[in-house]
Amino acid sequence: KNLREYGIEIGVLDTGPMNSITDVRGVQVGHQTLIKEDPIRTGVTAILPHPGNLFQQKVPAAVHIGNGFGKLAGSTQIQELGNLETPIILTNTLSVPTAADALIDYTFTFDDNNNVRSVNPVVGETNDGYLNNIRGRHVSKEDVLKAIRSADSGRVSQGNVGAGTGTIVFGFKGGIGSSSRIIPESRGGYTVGVLTQTNFGGVLQITGVPVGKELGKYYLSDQLNESPDGSCMIIVATDAPLSAHNLERLAKRAMLGLAKTGGISSNGSGDYVIAFSSAESVRIPYHSKNSIQNQPEIRNEGMSPLFMAAIEATEEAIANSLFHAETMTGRDGHTINALPVKRVMEIMKEYGRGEE
Amino acid sequence: KNLREYGIEIGVLDTGPMNSITDVRGVQVGHQTLIKEDPIRTGVTAILPHPGNLFQQKVPAAVHIGNGFGKLAGSTQIQELGNLETPIILTNTLSVPTAADALIDYTFTFDDNNNVRSVNPVVGETNDGYLNNIRGRHVSKEDVLKAIRSADSGRVSQGNVGAGTGTIVFGFKGGIGSSSRIIPESRGGYTVGVLTQTNFGGVLQITGVPVGKELGKYYLSDQLNESPDGSCMIIVATDAPLSAHNLERLAKRAMLGLAKTGGISSNGSGDYVIAFSSAESVRIPYHSKNSIQNQPEIRNEGMSPLFMAAIEATEEAIANSLFHAETMTGRDGHTINALPVKRVMEIMKEYGRGEE
Amino acid sequence: KNLREYGIEIGVLDTGPMNSITDVRGVQVGHQTLIKEDPIRTGVTAILPHPGNLFQQKVPAAVHIGNGFGKLAGSTQIQELGNLETPIILTNTLSVPTAADALIDYTFTFDDNNNVRSVNPVVGETNDGYLNNIRGRHVSKEDVLKAIRSADSGRVSQGNVGAGTGTIVFGFKGGIGSSSRIIPESRGGYTVGVLTQTNFGGVLQITGVPVGKELGKYYLSDQLNESPDGSCMIIVATDAPLSAHNLERLAKRAMLGLAKTGGISSNGSGDYVIAFSSAESVRIPYHSKNSIQNQPEIRNEGMSPLFMAAIEATEEAIANSLFHAETMTGRDGHTINALPVKRVMEIMKEYGRGEE
Amino acid sequence: KNLREYGIEIGVLDTGPMNSITDVRGVQVGHQTLIKEDPIRTGVTAILPHPGNLFQQKVPAAVHIGNGFGKLAGSTQIQELGNLETPIILTNTLSVPTAADALIDYTFTFDDNNNVRSVNPVVGETNDGYLNNIRGRHVSKEDVLKAIRSADSGRVSQGNVGAGTGTIVFGFKGGIGSSSRIIPESRGGYTVGVLTQTNFGGVLQITGVPVGKELGKYYLSDQLNESPDGSCMIIVATDAPLSAHNLERLAKRAMLGLAKTGGISSNGSGDYVIAFSSAESVRIPYHSKNSIQNQPEIRNEGMSPLFMAAIEATEEAIANSLFHAETMTGRDGHTINALPVKRVMEIMKEYGRGEE
């Protein structure tokens, strides 16, 4: 269940209808979950900014690096050209090359791309090596293509699915989480959606309640000897017509949402944010007869409500990943427990939150 | 009073003895407060990394730009060379040139600097133009020099003092705030101290309690029509022997502390962090006979506790600025109220916080 | 005389009619030259992107930092917001604060700006302290305002004028230089204009001819004991409708032009490039009823001809500064000789260049 | 033959004994060249900062992005942590994922790395798709491992070898090129070595002589309809004990060397520089009992001679790639001619260069 189904709200803005990144028109998400002997506890999550041929119809995009201890593929070209030309794939650290290769395959499946000789695959990761035999590199190109093919625009599955299958957050089982926000009609009524792959540490807070401290499980406490390292991938989508320049500013705000969950962006955490606009009016065609493109663009002062939306949706997406994830046992018998939701709800009540 | 004197704690790490940036050995702070007819509601705050001739004994330093809608002087040279050669001055937006000029004067007062022909003055600012007749540019060079001369290593005065005299945060009177943290002895026992000049908006939270929401005063609510813009200057000091590279990473974490107070780094907010190490072992002499300098340096994996310290101290410094500030009336009869501490404490209790 | 008047060409693109930054429609340049007893050998150069109220009609702009050992004021706001709201002032290192203060004065002279309480003055500098008594800070606010008021759209005066009055380049007298390029009509026919304030070192080359080496005067040679430090400010203007994002890319190319003159961007050189578009179609009004602005924008692949234009014009602007500058004696009797043009022309001939 | 063997010198500093990146102590280079039916015209070049286990003994490193239209793997972690933990692999654009995967394999071949679960493979590329059937992705992991295994510290093979097999520069056949410089003993006597994979365009100059213009073959001329796009990878090695911070500054200077060959860093060019220090005194052990590392470090003002060395060696490495490359026919019968060396030498003479 989502956090909200326990009567707990984060922030002041309304969520979209599904409270999911897929509330942003055009966005699709697919997962491929790999839970097998070996033990394999990993997977792939694909985010498609729109369902068409992305190489031919690129979307404005930007990357913000919260802490660069990670292996994100494709970041420099996004930053230079300001656009995204493949789906975004999330997976485990050591499967980034396989996923990147699969994105090239995927791009070549489109007839229109028959003469394409350069592709910028975008792949993010977190390290699930505590539960998963990550050195086995068990994600195949076919797994990646399946994640893409299975993408749809419905509510995103959360918790131990796809790239979140084997992740750990604040010492509990993490995974995929998603949330969305709609800014007031008077400010444009745009939607901002976020998807996170959570695998990091710090001192867990849920809507400000010091859950980690109450449970005695936090970085530098006696009971959390595990490192806070591990990484967080955050994808921010919006239907607001934004330039790469303002998308970069928007991406930066997602880290403020991570901060509100108690994340500290530790030395070993690869915290990256990729933001894109799915608005049709700002698509960038690969070829154009015109050397000039006319583009609508939100003025700078219109960004603040979108910033707030990205912060709130990120905080809630991370919380949702915890509320959906389930206890998992993996490599070398390691077990990571789910967040003890019942106990957490008691704590929430002590701190004046949740349903009566 | 500091937040802690109300029985409210932020974070899990211990504070330094004074809970002030001056807990970091060598650091001194001075204020010059200007409250006069006109109306003038502004001032100057000076932060000295060490009491000596900074030009001759530079300190490693870095700048992180949370949101660059501001006029910070000196940032590019700090980033290029990785060091700081003047005190840091904070003041109002339109007095940055005057303060920069005064720092050149100050540098020239040292006999050892008689042949110096290049100085990189570092001046940060926030905009106090709602209460202060900022267009009058009433800060003089002498005011700046007075702030420097009055600097000492005692507990920092907070609230409506110095550069915080006329600032506004979350719709309430803001100002100067400070806090510090000590990391566990096993991790080095270093101190991180923070000083903030608070003048920004969002949705106020105090140690996670939704104070802004309860008071009905927050960005995009009906009752806070004032913009969330305005800026936050954050100074992070530490006695850990850090290189410029890791100081930049440390500076970045301060924004996560700002996030936890409900700040959204709005479009119009100039949010800058300057971090420096006051450790004597990493001082950078202006002249040296050796072309190679031997420097102790914390290894990357030793940074995480310092990151957490910077986050906690920033959150608490911002809160302290609110708890110390008092109601002020200024330009055109504008009045900004102090945080209603009594009401806030009631809210804190409803949310399970504070003294019994 | 310009280099071209000696029959020497740089690059393959055509120059604009005046071979000056003022070939870019709307751009105006003014100088205030200060040569007096004391000795004072300094000045001010003002570049106006358009003749109107820049605060109300901002222009898209970007900054590239070649080497950040300098005191450029205003860079972070340009980078964050992507625009420029004051004229650009160039002067000496220690007069940056005065010039910044003067730009605030200037902005306040417009009635439309009566309620403006935040201004981002943009001031670049190089250090003329070898010839000029720079510690005297002899540039006044009035000098800055005079430079602005005297700006016109005619051919730019070059050499020992304005901010170039006391500068040194490759061991010879430097100063202000300018040049322009027009890209082919088939690529849009746009103009790129460059103005440089030259004050740096390395191994002088003029259109590839090793002049510095032939004259035995270059960095690390026996005869050039002076440091290569000192800085170069480069202003790039264009009438192409560019976003801040692509202006940043354009700015970066100017450093490639500097490289071709033999500059090495030494440790102590503050090499900054500010690029802006003067195209009316991309002006950014301070206030707008629309939250969305429709903007024409050159597609990424249209940038390469503009890149080449910026490189060529920068190389030639630097050369022009040398050809126009005259021998100067200043502080402590220091004399810096003009480039020995006659001897240089002989060298050029030995290397197959110049008039028959 | 190297350019120097034709009696042509670039710059003023001495070269190392082999005039090769391998003049830097510890550095090894290996190539795997793939020329087969299909047509396959591609390959792999491996650069090893030292011959040991790089993961256990990392080297300080930095990345500079000249123009980010490229697929460099591993850049963000280098920038965040300031170190390199695998050999650097260069190959073609679409084989980056395969090479990255092979670097993980390679890292796992060391027994000491048996518990390693995170590896940051560093792979650069240029696009050889005009001559090579790049869509076929014919580079195998075994090819990459062979390049690594074949690495030695002898003079680097240049021209149509390894990752330079199918590249094009200034419309002529490009490839791998290398050069080195030694700075004066009085400045430390350090060596800087450069290796380039050349595949870009502009207006070719050789030590300042306008060869491209004389041959009528340059960007925006009638006869060079091919795009200037394509990319340049530049690897800069030094035995000077540099921090990541100053290595980043050093990397930036390599682009100035590229500029001097006439490169314009066109929109479609992925121009990246990776710099590292092979000095044993600055190695970064993976594990350490000490949380503090004592490191010798060149002071900032000692960087200028190294900057000049990087510029000169880059310019010469690019020239060498042209002088070594041979005419090649590939995909769809495309033929790219070698630089017409005899004709070029005539031009050089007209411009006062080369042997009598």
The tally of domains of chain A stands at 1
Poorly predicted residue ranges of chain A: none
CATH class of chain A: Alpha Beta
Strand content of chain A: 25-35%
Helix content of chain A: 10-25%
Q: Could you say what the CATH architecture of chain A is?
A: 4-Layer Sandwich
| Cα distance spanning the termini of chain A | 18 Å
Q: Please give the largest β-sheet of chain A.
A: 7 strands, mixed
Oligomer: homotetramer
Tell me the total number of β-strands of chain A: 16
Describe this structure in a few short sentences.
4 copies of one chain form a homotetramer. With 356 residues, the first copy, chain A, is of the alpha+beta class.
Question: Would you kindly provide a written description of the structure presented here, covering whatever features stand out?
Answer:
The structure is a homotetramer of 356-residue chains. With 356 residues, chain A is α+β, with helices and mostly antiparallel strands. The first copy, chain A, has a single domain, classed as L-amino peptidase D-ALA esterase/amidase (4-Layer Sandwich). Chain A is 23% helix and 25% strand. The first copy, chain A, contains seven helices and 16 strands. Chain A has helices at 75-81, 96-108, 141-149, 211-214, 244-260, 303-324, 341-350; strands at 28-36, 40-48, 57-68, 83-84, 88-92, 122-126, 168-169, 172-173, 176-182, 191-198, 232-238, 270-277, 284-285, 292-298, 328-329, 335-336. In chain A, strands 3, 4, 9, 10, 11, 12 and 13 form a seven-stranded mixed sheet that branches. A four-stranded mixed sheet of chain A has the order 1-2-5-6, with helices on one face. In chain A, helix 2 links the parallel strand 5 and strand 6 (122-126). The longest helix of chain A has 22 residues, at 303-324. Chain A is globular. The two termini of chain A are 18 Å apart. Strand 14 (292-298) of chain A pairs antiparallel with strand 14 of chain C, so a sheet runs across the interface.
